[in-house]
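Subject line: Sequence and fold of a protein, written as C-alpha cells
Body of memo: The sequence and its C-alpha cells, given next.
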Amino acid sequence: MKPIYISATLKDSGKTSVSLGLMQLLRERGLDPGYYKPVGQHYVRYHDKNIDEDSVLVHQVFQMPDEPYYMSPIAIEKGFTRKFIFNPDVTPLEKEIVACYNHLLKTHPMVITEGTGHAGVGSCFGLSNARVAQLLGAKVVIVTAGGIGRPLDEVALSLSLFRDHKVDVLGVIFNKVLADKYDMVRETAEAGLRLMGTRLLGAIPYDASLEYFTVGQVAEEFNFTVLCGSDNLSNRIEHTVIAAMEPQNMLAHIRDNTLIITPGDRVDSILVSILMLAENRPHSGGILLTGGFDPHPKIIPLLKSSNIPVLLSPDDTFKVSSKLSDVGFKIRSYDTEKIKRLHTLVKDYVDNDWILESLKSGKS
C-alpha cells in the first residue's frame, strides 16, 4: 500500500487533527498504520533525542512500539538552515529520511506521513514537503482551512509544486468549515477543485470544543507556577477575562469555564473571582495572578479551599494576556475527548473509502 502524505496550505490548518483521526479510523478497520514526521520544526526532548512534538503525541496516544527517532529523524534546530546554506549537501538527509521510513515499514503495513506546513516549507534546506513526498513515493492529501477564495488560491500554489515534483495529489480536505456556510462552501469548493484538476475529499465542520484549552495547558505552555487547585488543572477554558476594571464590573463578564487574569496584589479582584468561580459545581475555570505578586497570606486559605486552580506569573497583566492571545494550544496526549472527537469527524466527513482504495490500487 502506498504511503499517504498529509500536507497543508498554512500552519494550523489541521494536519495533525486529520492524521489523528485517520490513525484511529485505520486501527478501527484492523490496520496497524505507522506514523512519520520526517522533518519537524517544533521539537521537544524525548527519549534523549530532539523529537517533533506531533510525533511525541502520536507515540504516546497510540502507544507506538517504534523508537521515536524513526518517527521523527530530522529536527530543525537553531542554526540548521544557515548551516545547510553554506554546506548545501542534502543527500545525507534524504538517505536518513528514506532509511527511517523503510524501518517503519518493517512493522507497519502502511505509514501516515505528516508534512510541515505548505508544499514549499523546507525548500531552504532542500527538503520541501513536495520533495519529501517524492522521496517516499507517497500520495498527498492537502488540508486547508474553511473558506473559498483564499483556501483555493493556496491549494493552487501547493498543487503546482507537488505536480512539479511528479507527486500524486489525491485531493483536498477543507477543515474548520463554519456551520452556517457549510453547504455553500462544500459545493463551491468541490466545483473549484474540479477546475484545478483535483477533488474534494471532505469538508470537516468547525468544532469549537477542539479549540478550547485547559488551565494545565496554560501552566505547561508558559511554565507558570501552580499555587493551588492542582486536582482541577483539567478545567476547560472557554473565556478569558482581564480584571482591569472595578471588581463589581467583572461580574457580568465571568461565566462558566472562565480564566480570570488579575494582578496578584488585587485583593478585591481575587475575592470576586473566588466568589464567582466557586459558585459553579463542579468548579470551572481558573485564576492567573500576574506581576510576580503572591496573594495576601489571608487569602491563600480561601483559594485553597475553593479548589480553583490558581497560577502565578512573574509577568505583568498585559504581557501575559498578549501571550495567551497569540498562542495556539496543540492537542496533548491526555486530551482524550478531543482525540475521540477527531476520530468521529474524520469518519463522518471524509471520503476514507476512496482514499484507502486509491492507496491500494494506485489510482488517483
